[in-house]
Task: structure prediction
Amino acid sequence: MNVLHAPRPALEGAALSGTGHAVTLTGITHRYGGFVAVRDVSLEVAGGSLVAFLGPSGCGKSTLLRAIAGFIRPQAGSIAIGGEVVDDVRPNRRGVGIVFQNYALFPHLSVAENVAYGPQAQGVPRAQVRALVEENLRLVQMADYAKRLPRELSGGQQQRVALARVLAARPRILLLDEPFGALDKNLRFDMQIEIKRLQRELNLTTILVTHDQEEAMSMAERIVVLNQGRIEQVGAPSDVYDRPATLFAGTFIGSTNLLPARIAAISGATTRVRLAAGGEVDAVAPAPLGIGGRVLLSVRPERMRLVDGPGRGRVAARLDVSMPLGATVVHEVILADGLRAKVSEPRTHDGPAHRPGDPVHVELRLESGAAIFPDGLVEDPEQENQA
Ligand SMILES: Nc1ncnc2c1ncn2[C@@H]1O[C@H](COP(=O)(O)OP(=O)(O)OP(=O)(O)O)[C@@H](O)[C@H]1O
Ligand SMILES: [Mg+2]
Result:
C-alpha cells in the first residue's frame, strides 16, 4: 500500500477531532495529450461520508483522485474542500491523505517511526507526536507492534500501519486508491470493516476507488459510477442496483439479463413491454420511450424464478444447467427466442425440482428490479474519447 502525506497546514485541536469536510467538484475535465480521461465531472461528496468511485479500468478513477489530492491540475473545472477552493493550493497544503496500492512502509523504520513520520515532518512537538502515534496505532489495532519493523508484519498488518501513518497526519479527506488489491479475501474483509469503522469514528470524508462492485456496494454510502471519464450515475448502493440510470450502470453492477422487448403500452410511470421471448411485463423506463420502440429489459437473476406452468409475467424456457452456489442455485435457461438467461433462486433442501432439459417457465418478479433501456445504442469508445 502506497502512502503519501498531504498534511494540513495547521495542527490544532485533538488528534481525533471530527472532520467532516465536504469535497465539491465542479466541471472537472482532464486530458492527457488529446485523450480525455475525465470529462466534465461535477460531484458533491458530503462531509464525513464514504463515497466509492466505481468503474472499469481506465475510466478515470485515479485521475479524479489525483486531481483532488492536487497531484494533477485539471484543464477545466474547480475543486473545493470544506468549502474552500483549493485549485491553487499545493498537495501538501490540502489536508488530504492518500493511500495507494502496493507500496511498502519505510523498511528501515519501526512501525512507530513510520507513523511518526508525517507529524514530525509537519514540525509537531515531540510529545504530541508520541500521542499521535499511540492514538493512531490503537485505532488500527496495531499498538502492540510499535517496535517491529515492517518486514516482521503480515501484509494486512502492514496495511493497517500504512493507514495509521496517513491518519497520524490528520487529513481532512482520506483518499483510498484500490487499497485492498494485494490482500487475500479475509484480510480484505477485515480492512474494509476497519476503514468503515475509522471513517465513522473520525467523521472522516473518505473516497474509495475500486473496480470491485461488491466492495463499493458494501462500504459506500453513495456510489459514483464512472465510464469513459464521465459520471453515469450517483446514488445509494440500493438505488444504483435497483434503479440503474443507464444500461452501463445496470450491467456493470451486479449481473443482469438483458431481454429484447418492445414497448406495448405506457400508463404514467409504468411501461408495459412485450418480450421477444413471449409474455408481457411492466417495467420502469428511466427516459420517455415511444410505443413500439425496441428496448432491452434488464432483469436481475434473483428477480426470476423457475415455475411449472404458464401465466402472467411468465416466459416459456428450457432448463440447460443448474449450478448450486452454497445458499443459492443459479440456473441457465434457454428462452423461447433462443437467448440464454440466468435465474438465481434460494437453494432448498428438497433437491432440484427441475432437471436439465426440462421444459420450464420463468416468472419475472419485477416489483422494483427491472429497468428498460433503448436498444441499439452502441457507443464508439474511440470516437467518444477524442478531444
Ligand atoms: N500519465 C498519463 N498519460 C497518458 N494517459 C494517461 C495517463 N494516466 C492515465 N492515462 C489514461 O487516462 C485514462 C484514465 O486513467 P486512470 O488511471 O484515471 O484510470 P482508472 O480508472 O484509475 O483505471 P484503473 O482501474 O486501471 O486504475 C486511461 O485510459 C489511461 O490510459
Ligand atoms: Mg486507477
Q: What stands out?
A: Residues 217 and 237 are 5 Å apart (CA to CA).
